[in-house]
């Protein structure tokens, strides 16, 4: 055998050895993970807690109510850290899903698939769309809509009325009024909803996603709870925040900070809040037959303000109020 052929054989043998080592390591890691999951689930069932981004996580853990499990306090899966513990003697598994609907749906489905989950509480902050609500208030909506699923047509295009929930005509927003707008029109359409309670592989059109009605009734007991009003001694909200149950919320992969679009959402869908995850968590939970509720603190006016958006100033306070509401809700659950 020549030196060149010998070198190629040696290189191939090295690669094969590496693949064997990798496969063995992967297999061992998967076996370890499955064993941990088995041990964790044997201590269940759990209530799933899902936030979105670091300030909400900080607010939740800042309450000191979460007590980690002494055996397996966390498990890292697909880049996310699932934390196992208790809150007010309720067994919980907490995860921060990340911003946007894809992250929210992926984390929710992963939680439902891998852990013994009997319900999900999704919480964090949101933009305020309803003039009767204020920054710092808590909303626990009865319904959510995904308002980011569109057909976008030309200015002279035809809208199919059969599947149109609402439509936005860009020409309406021309300044000065009159003329055409080549952005045309957007029509808001239904989701395709698959469910464990429906026919397999057959979707039904759905626009308003309902949270669990029993849990919503439990949430009404929180309506008089005390909420934080001040960031510090020198910066407070003008009035005491309130908690409201039973309004509507909207979700899309859009951070809304535009007064005109804020008004459009309110008048077209009669919603009180806007965020980027809730509808995805609700839809994924309901699809799996899992009870779900959403608790959001209003951090800003979604573009309805004069000047800069208030999320950086009042976001932490809204997140703390949401976390406090979650703790009170868990206390009320049987």
From TrEMBL:
Q: Mind listing the UniProt keywords for this protein, alphabetically?
A: Signal
Leader sequence segment: 1-25
Question: Which stretches make up the Nucleoside phosphorylase domain?
Answer: 47-331
Q: Which GO terms describe its biological process?
A: nucleoside metabolic process
Which GO MF terms are attached to this record?
A: catalytic activity
Query: What is an example of a Pfam family matching this protein?
Result: PNP_UDP_1
Please give the name of this protein: Bark storage protein A isoform X1
- Gene source species: Ziziphus jujuba
């Amino acid at each position: 055998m020549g030196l060149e052929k010998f070198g190629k054989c040696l290189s191939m043998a090295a690669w094969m050895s590496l693949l064997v080592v990798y496969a063995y390591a992967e297999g061992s890691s998967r076996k370890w993970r499955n064993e941990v999951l088995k041990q964790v689930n044997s201590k269940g069932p759990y209530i799933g807690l899902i936030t979105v981004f670091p300030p909400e996580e900080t607010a939740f853990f800042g309450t000191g109510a979460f007590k980690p499990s002494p055996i397996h306090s966390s498990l890292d899966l697909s880049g996310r850290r699932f934390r196992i513990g208790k809150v007010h003697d309720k067994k919980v598994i907490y995860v921060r899903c990340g911003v946007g609907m894809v992250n929210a749906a992926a984390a929710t489905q992963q939680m439902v698939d891998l852990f013994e989950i009997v319900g999900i509480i999704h919480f964090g902050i949101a933009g305020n769309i309803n003039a009767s609500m204020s920054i710092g208030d808590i909303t626990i909506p009865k319904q959510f809509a995904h308002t980011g699923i569109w057909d976008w047509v030309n200015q002279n295009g035809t809208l199919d009325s059969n599947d149109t929930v609402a439509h936005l005509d860009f020409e309406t927003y021309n300044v000065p009024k009159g003329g055409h707008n080549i952005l045309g029109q957007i029509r808001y359409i239904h989701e395709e909803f698959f469910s464990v309670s429906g026919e397999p592989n057959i979707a039904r059109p759905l626009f308003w996603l309902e949270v669990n009605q029993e849990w919503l009734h439990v949430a009404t007991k929180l309506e008089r709870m005390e909420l934080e009003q001040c960031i510090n001694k020198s910066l407070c909200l003008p009035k005491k925040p309130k908690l409201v149950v039973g309004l509507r919320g909207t979700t899309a992969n859009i951070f809304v900070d535009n007064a005109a679009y804020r008004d459009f959402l309110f008048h077209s869908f009669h919603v009180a809040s806007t965020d980027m995850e809730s509808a995805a968590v609700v839809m994924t939970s309901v699809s799996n037959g899992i009870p779900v509720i959403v608790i959001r603190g209003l951090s800003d006016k979604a573009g309805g303000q004069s000047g800069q958006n208030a999320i950086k100033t009042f976001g932490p306070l809204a997140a703390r109020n949401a976390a406090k509401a979650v703790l009170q809700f868990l206390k009320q659950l049987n």
